Amino acid sequence: MSTLAIRPEVNAARTGEAIALYVHWPFCVSKCPYCDFNSHVRASVDQEEWRDALLADLAHEAALLPGRRLTSIFFGGGTPSLMEPATAEAIIAAARDHWLVADDVEITLEANPNNAEAARFADLASAGVNRISLGLQSFDDASLAFLGRAHSADEGMRALEAAQLAVDRVSFDLIYALPDETEESWQVALAKALGLGTEHVSLYQLTIEPGTRFATMVAKHDFEPLGPEASAALFEMTQDRTTMAGLPAYEISNHARPGAESRHNLAYWRYHEYAGVGPGAHGRRLGMRTVRHRKPENFLSAVARNGHGLIEEERLTGDEAANEALVMGLRLAEGIEPAALAERLGVERLVNEDRVGRMIGLGFLDRDETILRTTASGRLLLDSILAEIAA
Ligand code: SF4
């Protein structure tokens, strides 16, 4: 096992290098039955207490990454649109104080389309948010009820209009391949999605995650998930239609007009560094993997005790980093440069060339000079391909 060459003492040499910031807001009004994110329902949330805790956690990360150039902030959750705009504003202002800020810094906030939250979009934009990612999930009331969503299809459309008025850059999520999904029903939804004028859409297949209410329901045969063949046909249709509409996939589930990709998410997938603050947030700093306490109350206690919410901080070996970079990079349509990545991570090689050759022969991978990328059919089998080609 090789270890990463990056050490904290090289910090001074990294002044001006890009850094992305992820901020996790862990609260939701209710728990969706498919959700395995770190989200919690609480009767009340003390906004001031949370603002102070997140600011302290952020200050801890910033002190370890001095002089960096902030390229993006992403407020994820949970439901960060439940934050008071003043809380988001304080975090954005603190990040601007801690770091140099890129002129085109991207500041995204994930939002749910309930009326009360949509009413905050203009204030969030005034606070500095310049991109909204809206959890529409479906255009159909029966599907929204099945997904346990707290908004109607009409509310979703109104929230989308409010988001488009508030900020220039809007994305929304849809979940497809529900148990009763047909090619016809998804085709109609997709046509509607691609006609709404956003620069970016995230289209996720419903997956049954362990520990969720849906997992229990499937175990009790309350419903059967859509089969793999039908799901694959819907995935292929999605690739074709989005490409025709000028929003091709740049990642397995993410589609954008060229240039409108989520810069923040690209930083993850291109295996760049990012600071992660807030409950359950992960980060990648100076060759270390950082993880925060997941449960909100434990996070607050840790911040009160230690001045930060870290529960784990571990130096990645070169091999671990190489594997992570491979897993992330092959999600992207642009692919990876294995030799350049291996050099950046201080490992001899990233992939097993013989096995890569086999995967190219089978049509799952494609090589273009120094670039290795998955084909559309390969992206459907990504986990198996990764297990096969990792060096
Ligand atoms: S709103 Fe989002 S984070 Fe919250 S429970 Fe539903 S899917 Fe999970």
From TrEMBL:
Alphabetized Pfam families for the sequence: HemN_C (PF06969), Radical_SAM (PF04055)
CDD domains named in the record:
Radical_SAM
Q: Which residues cross the membrane?
A: none
Presence of keyword 4Fe-4S: yes
Location within or outside the cell: Cytoplasm
**Domain (Radical SAM core) ranges:** 13-248
**GO BP, one annotated term:** porphyrin-containing compound biosynthetic process
What Gene Ontology molecular function terms does this protein carry? 4 iron, 4 sulfur cluster binding; coproporphyrinogen oxidase activity; metal ion binding
Origin species, per record, is Sphingomonas cremea
Q: What cofactor requirement does the entry state?
A: [4Fe-4S] cluster
Q: Which GO terms describe its cellular component?
A: cytoplasm
Describe the family membership recorded for this protein in Swiss-Prot or TrEMBL.
Belongs to the anaerobic coproporphyrinogen-III oxidase family. HemW subfamily.
InterPro entries, per the entry: Aldolase_TIM (IPR013785), Coproporphyrinogen-III_oxidase (IPR034505), Elp3/MiaA/NifB-like_rSAM (IPR006638), HemN_C (IPR010723), HemW-like (IPR004559), rSAM (IPR007197), rSAM_sf (IPR058240)
Official protein name in the record: Heme chaperone HemW
Q: Which UniProt keywords apply?
A: 4Fe-4S, Chaperone, Cytoplasm, Heme, Iron, Iron-sulfur, Metal-binding, S-adenosyl-L-methionine
